[in-house]
Design a protein that fits this description.
The protein is mainly α and 486 residues long. 72% of the residues lie in helices and 1% in strands. The chain is built from twelve helices and two strands; from the N terminus they run H-H-H-H-H-H-H-H-E-H-H-H-E-H. The chain has a two-stranded parallel sheet. The radius of gyration is 29 Å and the shape is globular. The N and C termini lie far apart (111 Å).
Length: 486
């Protein structure tokens, strides 16, 4: 064998082993996410007793839909970890460029993960989740033989009709946006144009949903932190308050006992019971705060609130700086690349510390967006409950979480939270090149987040000062005259 042929064979063999290694790594990562998501879903799923005639059929349908939901939730979790994994991989390769044990971590692997997440996100949103919902609601066509296949046929037909309807709407929308219809007359454009265009619209909806939910979630997290942790109070004597509350509880209890024992006392027992429950609730809260250690009472809550303030403030400062970059440099626009130049340059001017901060901010914004999503009045009914969540609600939760998580890389890159460019088809969205959309999006996020932050902090400080000075007990008087009755 000639040396040139031997070298070519060695290169092909190396590429083959690299491809096999990447497939094994991706399979292991996805299997780990799938197992984790299976435990999460079974923790919330409502237990169903299939006691009907077709109990085996219903159980099989339930297992199939549960598997599809687990797959979708695993894809959503993978989309959340996608950008942090890419940033950490780049910093690891920069720190250990010639380490033998991390040679498997390369740009080809990261690029393949981005393509797989994009493919599975499209597959889950367009086919798997609609199929799971229609499959659980199907019973088979009238007159057909009952069974799993009858439900599969009905679900397939309904899903096909829905696909034609959605593709028709996408075709009309694309014709209204772009007048170039000559290049979109083949079925090949279904994969090359229509599905990416549909996912671009879904991603835009997800990014707008993140924009609305994240500031609301930040405000909710400040409120939840105050409820979960023991708040220090100014000018407060816990022993005196606890003693007064116990005396008040004992007095109300004696009045209730006297009212039951004597028929001469005209007491509203129900009103006294409600008052007793309120006093007991107040006494338990005071006992909980009294049992807390001085470190927990004086350090835990301030540190948690300081952490939330710092992370929120850094996010706003990064977005404001990104707005200035958008006005001065066109390179600040979010763009997509086809190759992943990992291990060449850090994506933060502060090096590894800046990359770690970017990862923390990405997770922080994702958590705040999920908290804001489930706290909003429109989606509060989707909040899952432990061992009491029906399958249809699980499907709805998986779809919403996938929309939010798949938009997270675009959301982070659009706001300038990270400099890591979008890989694969994530950078093909048409609206990413529109300067006005990106600029208004950054300005809206900075304005809404600052407004929620100032509002929450100023109200909390005002309420604490009023409580410390005892002004909250003053009667509230109206500043306008009451209208006289006719």
């Amino acid at each position: 064998m000639a040396p040139a042929e031997h070298d070519a064979l060695a290169v092909r063999e190396q590429l083959f082993h690299q491809r096999v290694r990447e497939c094994i790594i991706c399979a292991l990562l996805f299997a780990s996410l799938y197992i984790l998501c299976h435990f999460i879903i079974t923790h919330f799923k409502k237990h169903a007793d299939f006691a009907a005639v077709h109990d085996d059929e219903d159980a099989a349908v339930d297992r199939i839909a549960l598997g599809l939901c687990t797959f979708t939730l695993a894809v959503a979790l993978g989309a959340v970890l996608l950008l942090p994994f890419s940033i950490i991989s780049n910093e690891v390769l920069l720190s250990f460029p010639h380490n033998y044990y991390i040679q498997w971590l390369n740009g080809s692997l990261v690029h393949g993960l981005w393509n797989l997440i994009f493919l599975f996100s499209n597959l889950s949103l367009v086919f798997l989740m609609p199929f799971a919902y229609f499959f659980t609601e199907s019973e088979g066509f009238a007159g057909s033989k009952k069974g799993i296949m009858a439900r599969v046929y009905e679900t397939t037909v309904v899903l096909l009709l829905l696909t034609l309807l959605v593709l028709g709407m996408v075709w009309v929308a694309s014709a209204m946006v772009s007048g170039d219809a000559a290049s979109r007359q083949s079925l090949y454009d279904l994969w090359e144009y229509y599905l990416p265009y549909l996912y671009s619209c879904i991603s835009l909806f997800g990014v707008l949903l993140l924009l609305l939910c994240t500031p609301f979630g930040l405000s909710t997290m400040f409120a939840v932190t105050g409820k979960l942790l023991v708040k220090p109070r100014l000018l407060e004597d816990l022993d005196e308050q606890l003693s007064c509350t116990r005396l008040e509880e004992a007095a109300v209890s004696r009045r209730i006992s006297a009212g039951k024992a004597s028929c001469w006392l005209n007491l509203n027992v129900e009103l006294l019971r409600e008052q007793l429950f309120a006093i007991r609730s107040k006494r338990r809260k005071l006992e909980l705060r009294h049992r807390a250690s001085p470190w927990q009472r004086n350090l835990g809550y301030p540190m948690a609130m300081l952490g939330l303030l710092v992370l929120t403030g850094i996010s706003v400062l990064i977005v404001c700086f990104h707005v200035l970059e958008l006005l001065l440099d066109d390179a600040a626009m979010p763009r997509g690349i086809q190759d992943a130049p990992l291990g060449q340059v850090s994506f933060s001017i502060f090096g590894s510390f800046g990359a770690a901060l970017q990862v923390v901010l990405i997770f922080y914004l994702m958590v705040s967006s999920v908290v804001g999503f489930y706290s909003s009045p429109l989606f509060t009914r989707l909040l899952p409950e432990r061992q009491d969540t029906p399958l249809t609600k699980i499907i709805g939760n998986c779809v919403c979480l996938l929309v939010l998580s798949s938009a997270l890389p675009v959301f982070s890159r659009t706001l300038g939270i990270t400099r890591f460019d979008l890989l694969g088809d994530f950078g093909r969205f048409n609206w990413l090149g529109n300067f006005y959309i990106v600029f208004l999006y950054n300005m809206s996020f900075a304005g809404l987040t600052t407004l929620c932050l100032v509002k929450r902090v100023s109200w909390a400080a005002q309420a604490e000062l009023l409580r410390a000075l005892g002004l909250h007990k003053l009667p509230v008087t109206r500043s306008w005259p009451l209208r006289k009755p006719c």
